[in-house]
Specification:
Number of helices of chain A: 13
CATH superfamily of the largest domain in chain A: Zn peptidases
Distance between the termini of chain A: 29 Å
Number of strands of chain A: 16
Structural class of chain A: alpha+beta
Radius of gyration of chain A: 24 Å
Oligomer: homodimer
Low-confidence stretches of chain A: none
Order of helices and strands of chain A: HHEEEHEHHHEHEEEHEEEEHEEHEHEHH
CATH topology of the largest domain in chain A: Aminopeptidase
Largest sheet of chain A: 9 strands, mixed
Mean pLDDT of chain A: 95
Shape of chain A: globular
Chain lengths: 421, 421
C-alpha cells in the first residue's frame, strides 16, 4: 500500500485530469460533450493514452464505449469492470461520470504492472446523460444487449440517427452485439460523485450505494373554472391554482413521512396564467422515488387519491397520466460488504445509501453483480460548472479502491465467482 | 308606463341589436372591435342611426366616443349621461359594454319624443378594454380630461400611436379637450352585465353598484435552491414550489376571512420548471380587491409578511414588487337610492354590491355623480362568445331605467343639482 502522501498526489492528478477533460468540449467557454461528437473523439484519444500508459490495451466498441483491458496474472482469467461515462450535460462540471473513469485508470496505474487473478477492464461509457437523443444510457445498454433498433433509429435535433452517428464516427452498427458483456465479466464497480447533499450533511466522504431508487413520473391536471379575479367571490370559485397548491403541499407532507422517500412537483403550467383571471386549469408534474417499489407505487397512488379528494371538495376534477414506472435496482450485497471492509481498513467512514439518480450501474446491474461508490459532493451541486470534489475525498476513494482490488484478489468467494464465470 | 308585454318586446329588440353589433367585427368568425378600427366605424354608423331615429343628434368626439344628445324640454337645461363602451375584447360576447349603450338608446326610444327637464346624452365609449394599446379607458379618460400625452403617444402592436389612430379615423387630436364633460353634465348612469356569478347565485336580476373595488397588483418571487429531485432528501430542500404553494393557500385563507375581499394568484412561473428538478424560483402574481382601500392595502401587506414568514421558515427568500395600487371608487348615494326606489316600484329585487371589475363609471365618477346597474350574468360568463343575458332581466332593467328617468325628472333634489349645474 502506498503511503498517504503518494495517494494524495494521485488524487491531485485525478482532479487535474478531470479538469483537463472538461476543457475538451463542443461548446467553447463551457463543458459539453455529447455522444460521439468531435470533442468525444479527442477525449477518447487523451483517456486512451492514459490507459495505454497504465498497461491496458485500448479499443472503442461499436456503441462508442472506450474500453481499456489491463490483463490478469493468467491468460484466460475473467475480468472485473470499472468505469463510468465520458459524455456530459451542457454547461457541465468536470466530475459527473468523468471522475469514475479517471479514477479507475488511476487505480490501474497504482498496480504498477502488478497483475491480479482477474483482468481489469476500464470502461468509459459513450452516453449516459441522454442529451443528444433524449434517451439515456446508450453506452451501458449496448453492454447489456439492450441497444435495440428503436433506440438506434432515434434522431437528434439535426435528424441524425444513433445508427448514423455511430457510422459517422467510423464504427459499425452491425458490430454492436460484440459490445455486449462477455461471459467472463465478473462484476461492475462504478465510482461517481453523489450529486446530492446527503454525504456532506453527514460529514462522510464516501457512500456505498445499496440500490438505485425506482421512479414514478406522472402528470396531474386540475380542471376548475377560469373566471374574473375581480368579480368572482371567494366562495364561488373553482380555482385550479388553489387546488394545485393544496396538492403540492400534500405531496411534500406525504414524502416526509417515509425515510428515503422523495416526491417532487417541479413543473407547473397554469391556464390562462393571467394575473386577473382565476386559473381554470393547472398541470403539474409528479416525480416519486424510493428503493422500495411497493412503497413508491403506493405513494403515487395515494397522492392520486388525495388529488381526487382535493378536486372533489373544491368542485374541480383532476386527470392523472402515468409517464414512467421504473423499478428500483439493488446493488450486489457481497460487493457492498467488500467495499465496506475496504473503507474500514482505509480508516474511512462510509454511509450506505440509495441513489436517487439513475446511473450506468443501474443498467449493468441487470446483467452482472454491480456496486457503486459515491464521493461527497460539495453543496450537492452537480450538472453545473461549479461542481467539485475535494482532494481528500478522492484520496479516500483511491485508497478504498486499492484495498478493494487487493481484497477481491484474495477473496475465496470472489474466486468462486471466477470459477463460475 | 308601458305594459310588460311592450317592455318584453323592447328587451327582445335590445338583445337582437346587441347580437347584430356582435357581427360587426375585425376578426371574421368571432367578435373583436378595438379602438377606432374599421369595424368600429361601421358599429358607430349602425348605433348612430338608432340614436338619430330616437330623436338624438349624433356626433363623434375627438377621442372617438359616439355621442347622441336627446334634447330637454327647455333649451339650456343640463344633461344626464347614459352609456357604456362599444369596443370589445378578442373573441368577445355580445353584451359586455354594448348592452349599456343599446339599452340607453332604447330608454330614449321609450320617451317617444316626450321631453324631460334634462337632456339625455347617450355615450358609446370608444375604448374601455385596453386591448389595442394595453391601456384601458381611453374614451372615458378623454371625458374627464385625463387623456394625456403619455397615453396619446402609446403605440399598438403595429407601432401606430393613439394620436395617429385618432387622425387615421378622420378626427383631430387637437380637439380632445372639447371631448371633456361640459359643466352642464349632471350625472352618469351605466348599465352593464355583472360579469360575475353573484346575482345569479342570489337569484336576483339587478344589482346596484355601491362602488368599484380598489385593486392592488403585485408580483412575488420565492427564491430557493434548484436541485436534483432524486438525490436531494426532503429535509435538505429549499423548494420554491412548495413555498409558493403554501403562500397560495394563505392568500385564499386570508381572502375568505373578510366579506367582499377577493385575492387571486392567477399567474405562476417556475424555474427551471422541469419534472426532475426541485424548483429554484417561483414567481407569482397577486391581485387583491376590496371596496375599502385600507382593508385592501392591509391585506396585501399582511400577505407580504406571510410570504416572508413562509420563505424564512423554509430557508428561502422572497421578493415583492408592487405593480398597481388603484383606490376604490364610490358611486353616488343619491343615485343609488333613486335606483333602489325605481327597482322597488318595478317590483324587482335588487342587491347592493361592489364591482370587482373596472368600468368607465370608475373613471367618470371622479368628475360627476355616477351610478351603475348590473344585470345578472348567466354562469358569470363574460369575455367569451357564450356571454348572455335573459330577456326578463333586460326587461327589468328597462323598466327600472324608465321609472328612474321619470323619478329624476320629478325629484326636488335632482332639480337642485340642475340649478347648481
Amino acid at each position: 500500500m502506498e503511503h498517504s502522501a503518494a495517494i494524495a498526489d494521485r488524487a491531485e492528478k485525478v482532479i487535474a485530469r478531470c479538469k483537463r477533460l472538461a476543457s475538451i468540449t463542443e461548446t467553447p467557454g463551457s463543458t459539453c460533450r455529447t455522444f460521439l461528437s468531435i470533442a468525444m473523439r479527442e477525449c477518447y484519444r487523451v483517456v486512451g493514452d492514459w490507459m495505454e500508459a497504465a498497461g491496458a490495451s485500448v479499443s472503442i466498441d461499436a456503441a462508442g464505449n472506450l474500453r481499456g483491458l489491463y490483463p490478469a496474472a493468467d491468460t484466460g482469467a475473467p475480468r472485473l469492470l470499472l468505469g463510468s461515462h465520458l459524455d456530459t450535460v451542457p454547461d457541465a462540471g468536470a466530475y459527473d461520470g468523468v471522475l469514475g473513469v479517471v479514477l479507475a485508470v488511476s487505480l490501474v496505474e497504482t498496480l504498477e504492472d502488478r497483475k491480479l487473478p482477474f483482468a481489469i477492464e476500464v470502461i468509459g461509457f459513450s452516453e449516459e446523460e441522454g442529451v443528444r437523443f433524449g434517451a439515456p444510457f446508450i453506452g451501458s445498454r449496448a453492454l447489456t444487449g439492450k441497444l435495440d433498433d428503436e433506440l438506434l433509429n432515434r434522431t437528434d435535433a439535426k435528424g441524425v440517427s444513433v445508427r448514423t452517428a455511430i457510422e459517422n464516427f467510423g464504427l459499425k452498427p452491425a458490430d454492436i452485439s460484440q459490445a455486449a458483456l462477455s461471459n467472463d465479466s465478473l462484476a461492475y464497480l462504478e465510482f461517481h460523485i453523489e450529486q446530492g447533499p446527503v454525504l456532506e450533511s453527514l460529514r462522510i466522504p464516501l457512500g456505498i450505494v445499496e440500490g438505485i431508487a425506482g421512479q414514478t413520473r406522472g402528470e396531474f391536471t386540475f380542471l376548475g373554472r377560469a373566471n374574473h379575479a375581480g368579480t368572482t367571490p371567494m366562495t364561488l370559485r373553482h380555482d385550479a391554482m388553489a387546488a394545485a397548491a393544496e396538492w403540492i403541499l400534500e405531496v411534500e407532507r406525504v414524502a416526509k413521512m417515509e425515510k428515503g422517500l422523495v416526491a417532487t412537483v417541479g413543473r407547473i403550467a397554469a391556464t390562462p396564467n393571467a394575473a386577473n383571471v382565476i386559473a381554470g386549469q393547472v398541470q403539474l408534474s409528479l416525480d416519486v422515488r424510493h428503493s422500495s417499489n411497493s412503497l413508491r407505487i403506493r405513494t403515487a397512488d395515494f397522492l392520486a387519491v388525495q388529488a381526487e379528494e382535493i378536486a372533489h371538495r373544491r368542485g374541480l376534477t383532476v386527470q392523472r397520466k402515468t409517464l414512467l414506472n421504473q423499478p428500483a435496482v439493488s446493488m450486489d450485497p457481497f460487493l457492498m460488504g467488500q467495499i465496506e471492509q475496504a473503507a474500514v481498513n482505509a480508516g474511512c467512514a462510509v454511509h450506505r445509501m440509495v441513489s436517487g439518480a439513475g446511473h450506468d450501474a443501474m443498467i449493468v446491474a441487470g446483467t452482472i453483480p454491480t456496486a457503486m461508490i459515491f464521493l461527497r459532493t460539495p453543496g450537492g451541486v452537480s450538472h453545473h460548472p461549479s461542481e467539485s470534489v475535494s482532494v481528500d475525498d478522492v484520496a479516500k476513494a483511491m485508497e478504498c479502491g486499492m484495498l478493494l482490488l487487493t481484497q477481491l484478489g484474495g477473496s475465496a468467494e470472489f474466486q468462486k465467482r471466477m470459477v463460475r464465470a
